[in-house]
Amino acid sequence: MSTRKLTFSWSLAISTLCALALIVVLRKHQPSYEEKVAPISVQGRMGEPVQGRNFSVTARKLRLAQAYRIDGKNTDDPSRVVRADGIWLSVLVEAAALQQPGFISAQLRTRDGRTYTASESDRPALKGVNLSETQLLVGFPATGAFFFDVPPDVLEGATLLFHWGLNAPQSLDSLVEIDPGLDKATVAQLKEKAVPDLDMRTRTDR
User: What is the mean predicted confidence (pLDDT) over 76-96?
Assistant: First the structure.
């Protein structure tokens, strides 16, 4: 009689411990609050339209340059050279607002998780080309570029990110992620073609 009671007690204890262990494991693997409200990733590839909640973007081409030669601020001013602290990476894109007017922002995420935000609209100041802080209207897609000033050694394995709005990506909103194919060979080719002073002037007499 006593032996059966002791056996039953041990069985109950073991079952309880197993249940508690399972609960701990399940809680450990539950997503955190930050993960639950994180932006929703939308994967895409170069040359293909990728659609987020309120925008569409197509990344067409990448180019590297050490500096850009642009028009002077005023008509009679001489041209200016905008140099990068590292190297300029430009991404030619087609972008469109789908439901309401607004802005698309771009980032470059490196292989180790660091992010570089595209330069502001005045660096380089290329009106109609630099899409940073450019308002998009529904029904009027825009073609232009985002410009990144980044260290040359972070390009390999980097990913392009695009989101709606001027600030950080909003919770549960779309985050378009495009793999630009920046493997070792591609980065080497881009660096080989990079010019020290890329002429972006509209007036070549200055």
Answer: 93
